[in-house]
Amino acid sequence: MADVRVGIVGAGFMGETHAEALRRTRGARLVAVAEPDAARREELARAHGVERTHGAAAELFADGGVDLVVIAAPNALHAPLAEEALRAGKHTLVEKPLALTLAETRRLKAAARESGRRLAFGENLVFAPKLVRLRELARDAEALGTVYHQRHVFQTCGPEGGWWLDPAAVGGGALVDLGCHAVETCRWLAGRPEARAVTARVRTVDAARFGPLDDFAVLWIEYADGSTAQCEVSWLRPGGEEVTAEVFGTRGLLRADLWKGMGLSAFTETRFASVWEPSSGWVHPEWDWIWNSGYPGSTQNVVDAILEGTDVEETVDEWEAVLEILLAAYLSAAEDRRVELPLDAPPEALPLELWRAPSAEDR
Amino acid sequence: MADVRVGIVGAGFMGETHAEALRRTRGARLVAVAEPDAARREELARAHGVERTHGAAAELFADGGVDLVVIAAPNALHAPLAEEALRAGKHTLVEKPLALTLAETRRLKAAARESGRRLAFGENLVFAPKLVRLRELARDAEALGTVYHQRHVFQTCGPEGGWWLDPAAVGGGALVDLGCHAVETCRWLAGRPEARAVTARVRTVDAARFGPLDDFAVLWIEYADGSTAQCEVSWLRPGGEEVTAEVFGTRGLLRADLWKGMGLSAFTETRFASVWEPSSGWVHPEWDWIWNSGYPGSTQNVVDAILEGTDVEETVDEWEAVLEILLAAYLSAAEDRRVELPLDAPPEALPLELWRAPSAEDR
Amino acid sequence: MADVRVGIVGAGFMGETHAEALRRTRGARLVAVAEPDAARREELARAHGVERTHGAAAELFADGGVDLVVIAAPNALHAPLAEEALRAGKHTLVEKPLALTLAETRRLKAAARESGRRLAFGENLVFAPKLVRLRELARDAEALGTVYHQRHVFQTCGPEGGWWLDPAAVGGGALVDLGCHAVETCRWLAGRPEARAVTARVRTVDAARFGPLDDFAVLWIEYADGSTAQCEVSWLRPGGEEVTAEVFGTRGLLRADLWKGMGLSAFTETRFASVWEPSSGWVHPEWDWIWNSGYPGSTQNVVDAILEGTDVEETVDEWEAVLEILLAAYLSAAEDRRVELPLDAPPEALPLELWRAPSAEDR
Amino acid sequence: MADVRVGIVGAGFMGETHAEALRRTRGARLVAVAEPDAARREELARAHGVERTHGAAAELFADGGVDLVVIAAPNALHAPLAEEALRAGKHTLVEKPLALTLAETRRLKAAARESGRRLAFGENLVFAPKLVRLRELARDAEALGTVYHQRHVFQTCGPEGGWWLDPAAVGGGALVDLGCHAVETCRWLAGRPEARAVTARVRTVDAARFGPLDDFAVLWIEYADGSTAQCEVSWLRPGGEEVTAEVFGTRGLLRADLWKGMGLSAFTETRFASVWEPSSGWVHPEWDWIWNSGYPGSTQNVVDAILEGTDVEETVDEWEAVLEILLAAYLSAAEDRRVELPLDAPPEALPLELWRAPSAEDR
Predict the structure, then answer these.
(1) Which of B67, B348, D152, D215 fits as disulfide partner to D210, beta carbons 3.0 to 4.6 Å?
(2) From A106, which residue of chain B is nearest by alpha-carbon distance?
């Protein structure tokens, strides 16, 4: 099947992030970018080998060689541009927030239905590998018992300026910017139950920087299944971004920290079915261990070397150096001394034989 | 350019791991597997859509439709099989240890040179994304000053049995099994300096399980550049695998924990050029943040939906649910009450307007 | 000045805890205990060398040899017993909650005023050494900027039974039991500002165990100084008690975990005046470092040995053993070999001289 | 029994530390200080209410009103001063290192024996509450199985100058300064087995600051019981002092971090007898929980208030403020609204009754 041809609208920070994400997406090819700022537009095009560049989004929507449009423009333009792209027959992926009012949202629903095209909004956290693993663990009813509560924190140091601080362009403050991440992540983790009530406190603490936008909010959400969720968002956090998710069950609990410890920890009174040893009590679940161990990188390195005619990273010469050190280590242990390298008379024996030599027998 | 066609020798745990890694390698296609155990062989072939299966490695080496061979057999077979594969004209990737003696290693060097084919050994840790980031940080001389020492720990609960406990098949104990990871990782992190001396202590603590193999070792390596490295390996560690790397500089230090906290932490008296805010003092460096944030997963989901005709994960209906919660939150805050959902009269205003309504003016 | 003579009412878990605390209180002497259960009463008396035991609190209140009464009875008895003790002329320390209604509280205020005696309630957390240090850091306006929010978590696995689950005896659920800790701790940390409004969500998740008592609650408190506080309490937490306090300022933040990591961490964009190096960015403030380092224990051991005629822990023989190891270490490093103990010819030189011997000159 | 009267020799950092420790030692009274520097001497005397000050140690040794001498002078003076103090009939506590040569050590042994006085050296870490708890856990053979190894790290940023960098006064570098802590701590944790062999690597990395003193060392100690210990010391560590102790058993392991996380963590395949729930798998053992909870501080506050005629910290007025917040919280939850304080009509009901009022019945 042919690759999906993608055009990005907006070459700012998020446009660049989506371009990078597309580079790592099987079956996708970035072919066009639209951005009014010529310098940014050309820089993104150059960095990603994009064939066609446009000054206006409308030109990109008219481009017959584009199947999927990614919209990474200021918030207030998300819904109008998405509607235009759908009506032009494009599949459309929109940075969050997808739309700023319910009326806009309903127009998008109609446009998507009528166009027969895919419409998605960019809630990246539900694809974050660590949170994907968290959801798998959250569904282990044996380990967690009944899940009755979640807590989500998304706190940053806030936007520096630009349209992010223009109320008309951004639509809301930390609650819109970060709250939609937190709300959707907890809906998705909980299996998307219906929400029945919300109680919230919202503040503007740093009015000098953010007024009239809100910069600090706490939400308490009640779901139809009787469970609750708490979302805490802020633009006031120094010391680096804080993104955490906690799931509370009657028999266990889960905690993921996306950035600081980059960790995943969990407790169960019983046993997690999908966690390696130890799987009971406090555990440290891995996630995507094959990727985290570097195996795809290792095979990629060899495949690239073959395709590009270069050498591999881990050659037999490197092994020789490693093996000499291991042999020296066994010798050092066997003979209770420091062993200098290179070895004068490189032993042909197995490492084990060096250590188990007669002189070391009484060990 | 045509894909690289890959054959795997060995369908045990590591054979399966390499098959999974190949699935995530651009430009590679797994086409054949060789394994004497028919059940394992067919299971791996089925799971990965492998076309051709062989009972013997020699048959796979004779397969003209294979460009690259991955060897995942017992340790003692690594070098003989690799030599055979090279002599059959195959590029070859070998699970560690690449060879158990220096003589074997030299034969492989000759075979690789004469064949003109790539020969790599599978040191996956030098491709582990977190350690790749660690190396980038380790090279920040402004932040670290002079790096004078490293410390590497690789400790597991040890092999359960099989050929892993057969001295002839395995070649050595924890020092061979885990030590080659630790030694190569610290060579690579240090920029592969020449080793000048080794002092080691090696023990067999649990002789009932592991004798005559070693199960606990500490190595002290001295490099030509004056820096040192310490490697600690063990088959005796309960509570889950421990893989950590520490880099000590005169002005800063780095620490990566591959599994437990899955974290990366660093300190500098000056400033890390590649770390986001905060970049001085104790910092929490991210690694591969685009992948960890889920962006490739997000675009992949949309591309797959287009190619396969399915729906996306984050639809406009999901957004509608999120937006209703955000609007309810602003309303709750503005009116100091719990707001029930669904909203009776969905507001068409921007979220911010709800909160900044006259009734909330004195906030 | 003569010691304060103390009587405890209640010999359950908290009675025992207070007895132990008194043992570590300068100027206090536990002389009496009142407890209806004879076995518990005698056990506490025996364990703490208490002279006089009583079956009824009234007998203890009538005891002229008691200056201070500590009340550790079921919640509903706290206020009535405290009032009785004050009217009997005793200073009174009461386990939390001090009283279950505002009417009771006002009667106690009158009783304390009329008696001229001290009345205290046992909010131990404001004396917890780590939180005392947290408050000191919270007042570092240079480091934190304006403190605009606090977050307090106090979550346990809940009471097992007894009067703790009897609504009439206990007065409330997790919100009374743990909420009063959280509320008072954050008032104290904030410098006791006046509270202006409260928004709360309260649940009974595990009605089978706790109904009709609440077992999960979140409070949002608004203070007159514009700052806010969030308190989260629960009787549903498996995996061990969670007690944390977080303080959020515009330039920095603080976090204390009372039990799990037993840690204190803080961040500032500027500098903490009272934190040792490093004092900027993310820091790890010590607290009561002299106690945590063991110095009082060390001097206590020597003083006890003198007073009791026993030997000290760290004798000169122990030093000899340590010094031999240090000397052997320098020798080992100087001569690049393992050194066996005891040393054949114990060197009389300084450690440094061994290492700096001619043979090691080129090091 | 009368208090032990103590005199301190040396009013530098460690003299001050010992004075503070003595303040927290039952049965001890600091009565004299000897220090050649008049300003330091008078400052310490003033801060601790010391009656008698001396310019020379000999004057203090001649002081008949001193029972115990604490020596906190430069390293090279420790043994000579201790011998003089013992010969003057004083009990003697000496800062580490107790003596710099084996000859000095043997003279001290003789002096102690002949004087009949106590001689102790100040290894404070074996009294550090967290390590005391670690040792208790280390002896839980059911939980740990056979303990076969320990690892101790003591790393600082090194001394700034003064006699600490004078080879004749200090006797050795990091290995003497920090190594004696690490060596004695692991001897004590292991039950003081006999050492049979030492292998060590010692370096001077920062010769400009520390040469000819060593600043980095690793020791490998072999004990008669077959277990081993690793000590790692350094004067080169930026980012704050690192003091950790790890104990490795065949069924479990322990880790204490004295400063950074100030934590204690442990793992067992079975169960720790002395750890609260959870007691299996990975656990977070508390230590000295009564002190860490603040109970002694709480009772001390009341006793001091009585003795000094001041008021207590936690008065009934504070309770009233807390209770109002709790009542408001129950009201807020029952009526689904924000509740303003002070309450207009303070309810006389129990907290629980507010929440369980008819209006909240369907909750």
Answers:
(1) D215
(2) B320
Interface contact D336-A199, CB threshold 8 A: yes
Read off the DSSP letter of residue C127: G
For A250, the 3-state DSSP assignment is coil
Q: Which residue has the higher pLDDT, C287 or B55?
A: B55
Higher pLDDT, A38 or D338: A38
Residue C149 has, within 13 A of its CA and on its CB side, a CA count of 25
Tokens 């856990």 locate to D137
Question: What are the φ and ψ backbone dihedral angles of B203, each rounded to 5 degrees?
Answer: -135, 155
Exposure string (b/e) for D229-267, b if CB count within 10 Å is 16 or more? bbbbbbbbbbbbbbbbbbbbbbbbbbbbbbbbbbbbbbb
Torsion of CA B191, B193, B198, B203, to 10 degrees: 20
Most confident of A283-297, A336-350, D195-209: D195-209
Is the pLDDT at A363 greater than 50? The verdict is no
Q: What are phi and psi of A94, to 5 degrees?
A: -120, 135
C318 touches chain D (CB under 8 A): yes
- Cβ-Cβ contacts under 8 Å, C199 against chain B: 336
Give the separation between CA C15 and CA C48, rounded to whole angstroms.
11
Q: What is the pLDDT at residue D266?
A: 75
When pLDDT is averaged across residues B321-340 and rounded to a whole number, the result is: 85
Adjacent-strand bridge partners of B219: B200, B231
Cα distances from D344 to residues C225, C312, C342, D347, in angstroms, run 21, 64, 81, 9
C195 φ/ψ angles, rounded to the nearest 5 degrees: -85, 135
Give the Cα separation of A354 and D30 in Å (integer).
61
Interface predicted TM-score (ipTM) of this complex, two decimals:
0.85
The half-sphere exposure of C330 on its side-chain side, counting CA atoms within 13 A, is 29
Chain A residues inside the 8 Å CB shell of D280: 280-281
CB B30 within 8 A of CB B8: yes
DSSP category for residue C291: H
Can you say whether the dihedral through the CA atoms of A134, A136, A139, A144 is positive or negative? Answer: negative
Instruction: Give the residue carrying structure tokens 């002896």.
Output: D139
So what's the pLDDT on residue B142? 86
| Chain A neighbors of C257, CB-CB under 8 A | none
Give the best residue of B319, B324, B335 to mutate against chain A (max A CB count within 10 A). Answer: B319
Which strand (E) or helix (H) includes residue A253?
strand A252-257
pLDDT, averaged per 10 consecutive residues of chain C (363 residues), comes to 88 92 86 96 96 96 95 94 96 91 90 91 88 88 90 93 90 91 91 90 93 92 93 90 90 84 72 78 74 76 81 80 83 87 82 65 43
Q: Which of B167, B199, B264 sits opposite A332 (nearest CB)?
A: B199
A126 phi, psi to nearest 5 deg? -75, -5
Spatial CB neighbours of A124, under 8 Å, sequence gap ≥ 6: B293, B294, B295, B297, B298
State whether A205 and C251 contact (CB < 8 Å): no
Q: Using alpha carbons only, what angle is made at residue D343 by residues D337 and D349, rounded to the nearest 5 degrees?
A: 90
Chains linked to D by 3 or more Cβ pairs within 8 Å: A, B, C
**Residues B187, A321: C-beta atoms closer than 8 Å:** yes
**3-class DSSP state of D352:** helix
Inter-chain touch D280–A283, beta carbons under 8 Å: no
User: Which single residue is written with the structure tokens 């009372």?
Assistant: C258
**Residue A261 is which amino acid?**
G
Cα first-last separation, chain B: 64
Shortest alpha-carbon distance between residue C143 and chain A (Å)? 12
Rounded to 5°, the CA angle B212-B217-B221 comes to 135
**Which chain C residues contact residue A252 at CB under 8 A?**
238-239
